[in-house]
Design a protein that fits this description.
Elements: E1 2-7, H1 15-30, E2 33-38, H2 50-57, H3 63-74, E3 77-83, H4 91-100, E4 107-109, E5 114-116, E6 122-128, H5 133-138, H6 143-156, E7 163-168, H7 176-184
Parallel strand pairs: 1-2, 1-3, 3-6, 6-7
Antiparallel strand pairs: 4-5
Length: about 190
């Protein structure tokens, strides 16, 4: 199996970084293949701008987008690793999705039909949150409510199914031992 890891966290000392390292170890130990993009390290431009639309109109794709699209196309399984900020993904990841999952690549749409193009792929979304799960539940902010944009509205819409979400709650508030146990629980 070939995995693609899409990593979106700016801090190399973060728990997200540790998740990424654990996942790579798991993939290598299984003998699977993977490709990897660190959106912050690559300084991926998240702004969907006029040059993107002009290129698409000409039937072309800008080089940074083409690189990511080739990785997505080759992958059987996408692995997203990112923190939840304001109940969504970091802007750099949202911009990556906006630019990479374009009409003609991730789907086809005209005035009559919408056809997903990324069928046959699955995904796992590893997210970190600063809040405890029970606090979210008490405030009617269950995981399914705010992850629906990613699981259904993005990945599901373009045909990526099934999608599994793996949350890690209250990361800044738990002990190093608890974080270590969470890392050891990761299985690919």
């Amino acid at each position: 199996m070939k995995h693609m890891i899409i990593y979106a966290h700016p801090n190399p000392k973060s728990f997200n970084y540790a998740i990424k390292e654990r996942i790579i170890d798991e993939i290598v130990n299984k003998g699977d293949e993977y490709s990897f993009i660190s959106l912050y390290d690559e300084k991926f431009n998240p702004v969907l701008a006029s040059p993107d639309f002009e290129a698409l109109h000409r039937g072309e794709v800008l080089p940074d987008v083409a690189k990511s699209q080739a990785m997505v196309k080759e992958a059987d399984h996408l692995i997203f690793i990112y923190p939840i900020w304001w109940f969504g993904q970091p802007a750099i990841l949202k911009g990556w999705i906006d630019r990479v999952f374009s009409n003609g690549f991730a789907y086809y749409e005209d005035e009559k039909v919408f056809t997903p193009h990324l069928t046959g792929k699955s995904a796992t979304v590893f997210i970190t949150l600063g809040t405890a799960e029970q606090v979210l539940v008490q405030n009617d902010m269950e995981l399914d409510n705010f992850m629906r944009d990613m699981t259904l509205g993005t990945l599901g819409l373009v045909g990526i199914y099934p999608t599994k979400v793996v949350p890690f709650y209250a990361i800044p508030k738990i002990s190093d031992e608890e974080r270590k146990a969470l890392l050891e629980s990761i299985v690919i």
